[in-house]
Amino acid sequence: MSKMTASSSHPQPRDPAAHGTPLAVHASTGLSIEDTQRLLNQQARQRAMSSTTGAATTSSHATSLPLLASDAGSAPIRYRSQGRTLLVGTEARVRALASLFSQLPTTLQLPLVLLISDQDNSALVSLDEQHFTTSEALPSHSATRDLLSLKGYLGQFTLTSDGVNLASALLPAISVMQPDGQSSLQHVAHFDLIADLAAQPLNQAELAPPGYLRATEAVLSELDRLASDAQLDAITLPALTEWAAQFSGLVGSFDKPNYVSVNLDVCAHASAGSIGCTRCLSSCSADAIFSVVGRRNAHIEIDPFLCHGAASCVSACPTGALSFTQPPVEQRMEQIQRLLERYQDAGGIYPLLRYRLDTDEAGSATVSVADQERCLDITLDEITATGHDEWLAALALGASQILVELPSTLPAGQRQQLEQERRLTLALLDSMQLATDHHDTSRLVFISSSVEGESAEDSASALPLIAPLCVALAPGADSEEEHQLGLPIARDWLLGRPDERPGKRERLNRVLDHLAGLTAADLAEESVAVPEGAPFGSLAIDTDGCTLCQACVAVCPTTALSANRTSPALSFTQGDCVQCGLCEQSCPEQVITLTPGFAPQPDVRREPQLLKQDVPFPCISCGTPFGSTATITAMQTKLASHAYFQGDGALRLKMCSDCRVKDIWHEMARNPDAQLKV
User: Is Metal-binding given among the entry's keywords (predicted)?
Assistant: First the structure.
């Protein structure tokens, strides 16, 4: 059975309704053709969605603590919390909250520490006397916000004030049994939980670490009411009571998976002391990714205790150095493939692929009734777990349109990340004139989650129907004309065999090649503009200044730059370049400049382009070629005034390394004093 490859020829896109879809049933039912097709779409959707039942779940991780150890995989990340809670904010607020904790059965036993970081004398004057009485015996401390520094996560929060560890200073020492059977007192170095009521939060990340609970405006409003009236109860303070009750659920031991793995072999972050790609650092909403400077180089590390598994870093990583462990991206690609197979095989047309959160709120429809009948849902724990490479692949696999449902609570940073992915997707499609159909309807649409109490089914207008870019291929078919309805669909060109999975960049290149074969437009020979920061482009090189030293080849993480094994030469493959900038920074001659852009023609993007070629320079002693003529000439020019390379010493620049060493030893044998010059 032959496999379809990315270079296979494809006929022009057509309306799948004209591809032999069985509509004859309308004659016996009395339904119109349109109603019959809607019924077929509905049945096809049910069949497609049921085909994923029992398969591995698409949920990437648990959404909240506590987490089960059985869900944590082979190397779970474990938190341990004994409930030592720090309340930080104005004195009125922290004392009022401490009073509430002492009244709630769930938080009654939590060890509390009060930290007064803000001054609010007006609120302190109106503070109910009962709150003073309740919290008077609790350890407390005052410190200005500028002196405070918070690090850590659930069970391991370290808070210092002007260098002093407040946990050790304020929490009572605990008795620890020694190996000899004797007990001794030991200071507690960490807080387990943080209740932040301050005007300026101690943690600025959009996704705060587990165990750090920042009070919302609604909670603070009710807390201020409680501060002046201690007689208020839980019924009159619903938001505050619900927020405070979360602390009791964060006592004990909790496991979660290690969501993201790092492959430093293909990471484009740093090389040879230069910093390149930083997309993952800027995309992380939890501040869980760090650039660690080593002895020779820097590398990326992820703090698994801070990581929420939002996967925005995985979407932003252009090389696939960051990958999601649960589940791997190939699993979701296979799910998309399966959904589209079953849907089209059952007679469904115009398939919509909708990405949405795997939450209870996602149960409400965000599209019209008619569109719901052809919606194939991909549920995610974090909407940022998807991006341009996956959306393009879905269109290449037969989806007519991609819908991404944005939750109303999506943090601003993640929303910006998705918007960047959207712009890049549309720019790539537009370069092949595939971003819209002939009615100017976009193939990628962002939709908002329906407001509570409002059903989008009733209010939303039906989306325009867009024919998919391609129809399915059956196994062994060489063209869409040979496809027969009722047969499974072959998509081996994208994922390949399980033991030969392509990397992220190669998978994306296959998708782009496939899409380029589906367009009826003449593709531009030159690169087209892409959004700022996009991982696509080429480079401009001053060939007169280039010495072919190959420093750029040595640092390139994707082999976009390559050398010739038989002669001095430098080649560049645009399809592999992620615009990390390492070559530009590492070039000793400073003759390389990055030029962002995207080449829609596969031949231009995929074929190596010869940038410079030179004549090999032969060793003047043994005749062995050991470098380019340009390199040797540049060395002679730069070292012309060096004392060591004067007279006969200058000839060593024209020798290979072996002959140069031999010549040095011969010189030392003839003139022992020459050692002082080495």
Answer: yes
